[in-house]
Design brief:
This protein is an alpha/beta fold and 421 residues long. Helix content is 35%, strand content 12%. It has 11 helices and 13 strands. A hairpin with a 5-residue loop joins strand 10 (274-277) and strand 11 (283-286). The two termini are 26 Å apart.
Length: 421
Amino acid sequence: MSGNCATSSRRRLPHIIAAICACLCTVVVIGLAPQTAMPTAQADEGQRQCQAGIENYITDTPWTNTLFNVEALHQQSTGKGVTVAIIDSGVSTENPHLADAVVEGKSYIPDDDSKGRKDVYSHGTIVAGIIGARRIKGSSVVGLAPDAKIMPIRVFKALREENGQTTGNADLFTLADGVRYAADHGAQVISISMSDTHDLPAMQDAVKYADKHGALVVASAGNRLTSSSTVDGMRYPAAYPEVVGVSAVTMELTSTEDAIHGTQVDVVAPGANVASTIPNGVDCGFNDGSSTSYATAFVSGQAALIAERYPDETPAQWKQRILTTANRSHPDERDDEYGWGVIDPIASLNVALSDNLRGPNINGQTTQLQADRPTDSITLAPQHDPNALAKRIIMLMTIITVVICATAWLHTLRRREDSDS
């Protein structure tokens, strides 16, 4: 009897181990599944789905609101009277945060008479929410410049993956036309959450045109996951001297994995676990491969706040405010990963521009002088990821699962060899 039991147990052992592997794999898959809702908010099931047409409300305070102290910030400036042009996939006016924020723009899509007020891809609407979402009842989501006007300039419908390449994006000629349109129609800030490896003269001319017409261009320094090239290096229009080039950081204020680095990086801003708006819905949290797109939106919102507070300054002076007040470990140095540091909107509103500021001057050159920094500027502190421990546990479980499954496979293989012999 004991021999039969032992034999039966040995026969059942592979099945038992396989069952354990299946359970562990299920737990690991669940733990590693993408979370569309922001981890810092206690979202209900509807928020996690973030589906267009469903009213999803984020009720907890987004970490970026705390980082930038938006309550104090909005006592000083809200972007009122400033128009921000968003050159992107369009902006949906069906979202209640944006219904009263969007003015007439332009669409470069054939047979599209929406004047930019249409978005089937969500990207432009997300960017618009970060910049200018209005406060609405039941939601904690609010834009960095909640009184700014949004001018949508629709230059593409949607991005697609084909043969490992991202297609469907707008070409630089269309972007250049969009920049000129925005400058001609009163935009003080032009937000471009896109980048290209090519230095196109028409694009550079358009940027210079915008600068001469009183508009500051803010552009993405590049995303690895949405770019035809994943190599660090120059990206345009971010690399032009008139433009603020933006890269992205996580909640811990460290560079995101998909951010492209290079001399085009002027500053960094939040690009992970951000809360914003979606077409035909309300709120959603985002932590995908578009981190510098979201970071560009935050800097565009900051530029709108500055433009309201200092309407008589030039775009170059607005840019200097953003760069010199960014938080960095050494006031006289920049690097290709973080540029001049993490943006500090309150400090940028209060700094007194002069030739004695440490960091870049109005011409982009570095001075080695003592900064005349405001005493009431906020100090940005990293926001720790509340799921960090869970992620480490899941990783450990993954390793254990692989070991157990490998052991089960070897045991089964050995039994088969023994039976064959």
